[in-house]
Amino acid sequence: MSENLIALLTGYTGESGKALLKELEQRQIDFEKIDDYPEAFHGADMHFCCLGTTRGKSGVEGFRRVDFDYIVGVARLAKQEGCKHFHLLSSLGADSHSLFLYNKVKGQTETALTQMSFERLSIYRPAMLMVDRTEHRPLENFAQTIMRNTVQRIAPEWMTTPIDILARAMYLNSFTKDRPSIEILDNHALFRLSQQQTFTTKEQSQATNES
Predict the structure, then answer these.
(1) What's the start-to-end Cα distance of the chain, in Å?
(2) Given a cut of 60, is residue 178 above it in pLDDT?
(3) Which member of 17, 132, 174, 194 has the lowest number of beta carbons within 10 Å of its beta carbon?
(4) What is the pLDDT averaged over residues 68-81?
(5) Strands 7-10 and 182-185
């Protein structure tokens, strides 16, 4: 990454994490053995958290353990080790007061992280992720097929988020300046961010000399 920044990514085995990993220089750790890698958190300027599962895959307790306990634990360790900018992949509809488990847990996680006083906390709320998963999810695949042939053609930013758009937006947001300490980015903001350009320090210097 430019500016000699060090980033840490947890949840790289999921589809969002895989896409984001392509934008970063890579050093992988085994999340199942995260306690074996305390040094991996030390010195990371920013942390991208793409951890997440589903109730269908992990059950109610498993879903909450991953989407709340794991994420909050990772965030606390990141803050402890000096992380300045924490990126959280959340979801459209996140609301700690929701009657729906998925939205409620996502909202509770957001609330917990906002209380940790990061120098900067970026929360991303994409819509339906459009991605060809390696994991078999028949209902989601069916929904994506419907979306691709209807909503995505007419109003792509309304209810869908291509996975590459999400990953690029998260990556480029690391370089934006003069942002609030806590920001929540909806789907429209993700599309706008993904269209931005970033420059290395050398390229910025060259552009200044040429202007």
Answers:
(1) 25
(2) yes
(3) 132
(4) 91
(5) unpaired
Contact 123, 110 (CB under 8 A): yes
Catalytic residues: 102, 106
**CA distances for 206 relative to 1, 82, 176, 198, 200, angstroms:** 18, 32, 19, 14, 10
- List the one residue out of 111, 115, 87 whose CA is nearest residue 17: 87
Distance CA 176, CA 18 (A): 22
Sign of CA dihedral 75, 90, 52, 46: negative
Domains and CATH numbers, the chain: 7-195 (3.40.50.720)
Q: Is the pTM of this model over 0.90?
A: no
Instruction: State the SS3 of 103-135.
Output: HHHHHHHHHHHHCCCCCEEEEECCCEEECCCCC
The torsion angles phi and psi of 48, rounded to 5 degrees, stand at: -100, 120
Among 70, 42, 65, residue whose Cα is nearest residue 54: 65
Q: What is the pLDDT of residue 149?
A: 57
